[in-house]
Amino acid sequence: MPRSGNGAGGRGRFGPSVREEFLGRVRAGGSVTEVAAQMGLSRNTGYGWVRKAGLARKRSNGPTREDFHRLRGQGLSRTEAAERLGIHRTTAQEWDNGVHKLGNGRRYRDGRVVDYNIPMEARAPSVRAAVPLAGVEKPLDPRYLSLPERERIGDLLATGAPLREIGRQLGRPASTVSREIARNSTDGQYFPYAAQRAAAVRRPRPKAAKLARPGPLRDYVAQKLATRWSPEQICHALVEDYPHDAEMRVCHETVYQAIYVQGRGGLRREVAASLRTGRAVRRPHRDGAERTPRFEGMVMVSERPAEVQDRAVPGHWEGDLITGASNRSAIGTLVERTTRYVLLLHLPHGHDSAQVRDALIEAVQTLPEHLRGSLTWDQGAEMARHRSFSIATGMDVYFCDPASPWQRGTNENTNGLLRQYFPKGTDLSVHGPEDLEHVAQELNARPRKTLGWKTPAERMRDLLTST
Fold first, then answer.
1. Signed CA dihedral, 50, 53, 59, 64: sign only
2. Which of 331, 318, 329 is nearest to 359 (CA)?
3. DSSP state at residue 426
4. What is the pLDDT of residue 107?
5. Cys-Cys crosslink for 258: which of 56, 211, 372, 415, Cβ 3.0 to 4.6 Å?
6. What is the three-class DSSP state of 131?
7. Which of 183, 180, 185, 194 is nearest to 112 (CA)?
8. Domain boundaries, the chain
């Protein structure tokens, strides 16, 4: 290779022709490193020539951060942008979070100096507690935002997406997204990893529970428990006795936890014995699956055939009682699920299980056989004789879960309409069979949107005339 002049160590300065040849190859798309190796040049010499010639931005040296951020700005996910550029996912993650590796092993992440070998509080003045990397990456309950969700928030914010749209994509309320951005932004900007660290710092609760610390609050609560006050009474009394002392505040759940929860105690067991239950151990409430069935032979609504659930086959009914003042009088209501046709039951002598059963049998026996499919009811005491009703009519009875009125929503809606005729708190026994028949006819003659503006009476007529 021609050179001009000699230097120490056998080094010399390359002539203009060599430099022009090198720059020509780089302009043609060659890599600085590869062209330098082919021509027997130092890579540093080649980069110096490129910079002087103003070709530094045109060199082919692989994808850059600018390329990556340009793709991210176009809406590509981190994984998609990494695959498009052919870079490792770790590199993409660091570029996404503003991480720059330095020669001494320190990193800049989100504009902060980060070194995994020093405590967290030394990395950034705004972080007040040390949290190890494992604590930042620790998986939490799904109700808390995770790191991938925070990354998604950062991605969507970069595209200008509104908070409600971000919430919809995450399956979270918009208020959750709003609070996350307000709490964990840095200098007005939201960085996912910085937000994750900030949340991890706030997560530990090293301070002792309120009632585990000696003081006037704990003494007050213990004294009132000893005189057999309930925790809720104690909480309200604190507000009355110490209206201007914010330290003298505690909720009733905190009192229960101080008694029952291991590790959060603070009240002696002899004080706990003053509770009206007399229990020293908290007993959880049983869920619906563990409850003892109220009636023998109950079949729950979850076991209804599919034809009942999708209203494809007529003849399946929902029922309930609407009661009058002090529950002394009642009217039985039946509504057919497909047609919304209403039948009202007259109960002049009361509404115990025998009277409701007899009224149901009398009403159902007026129906043709193909309209006696099933009956869905709640677990009211009036259905204690459901087995004798089924034997007399051939109709299966299904029971809703406790406190689940939506499982017989058609009947609940109908009862709401009936309250226009039979207001709450009135004596329903004054309404005779003729009155009930008149109200049922009015309801059945109303066009219904869910029936394509047909009336229940018309739909029922069609069923009766088509069979």
1. positive
2. 331
3. S
4. 47
5. 211
6. coil
7. 194
8. 3-58, 112-202, 210-272, 301-465
Calculate the dihedral angle through the C-alpha atoms of 79, 80, 82, 83, rounding to the nearest 10 degrees.
110
d(CA 198, CA 195) in angstroms, rounded, equals 5
> Does domain 301-465 sit in CATH 3.30.420.10?
yes
* 100 three-state secondary structure: strand
pLDDT of residue 365: 92
**Rounded CA Rg of the chain:** 38
Contacts of 122 (CB under 8 A, 6+ apart): 115
Q: Which two tokens stand for residue 362?
A: 């009398």
Pick the CATH number of 3-58 from 1.20.120, 3.40.50, 1.10.287, 1.10.10: 1.10.10
Tens digit of each residue's pLDDT (9 = 90 or more) over 451-463: 999 999 999 998 8
The string of DSSP letters for 146-195 reads PHHHHHHHHHHHHTT--HHHHHHHHTS-HHHHHHHHHHH-BTTB--HHHH
Low-confidence ranges of the chain (pLDDT < 70): 1-13, 56-62, 97-139, 204-208, 261-293, 467
Would you state the pLDDT for residue 333?
A: 96
Please report, to the nearest 10 degrees, the dihedral formed by the alpha carbons of residues 259, 261, 262, 266 taken in order.
-30
Distance CA 464, CA 395 (A): 19
What are 189's two structure tokens? 């900007």
> What is d(CA 279, CA 277) in angstroms, rounded to the nearest whole number?
5
Residue 341's nearest CA partner among 364, 317, 321 is 317
pTM of the full structure: 0.43
Burial class (CB in 10 A: 0-12, 13-18, 19+), 461: middle
Q: Token digits for 234?
A: 């104690």
pLDDT value at position 197?
79
Q: Which residue has the tokens 């970069």?
A: 158
Please tell me if the domain spanning 3-58 has the same topology as the one spanning 301-465: no
DSSP readout, 334-357?
EEETTT--EEEEE-TT--SHHHHH
Helix (H, G, I), strand (E, B) or coil at 158: helix
The structure tokens listed for 1 are: 């290779």
From the list 46, 72, 71, the residue with the least C-alpha distance to 60 is 46
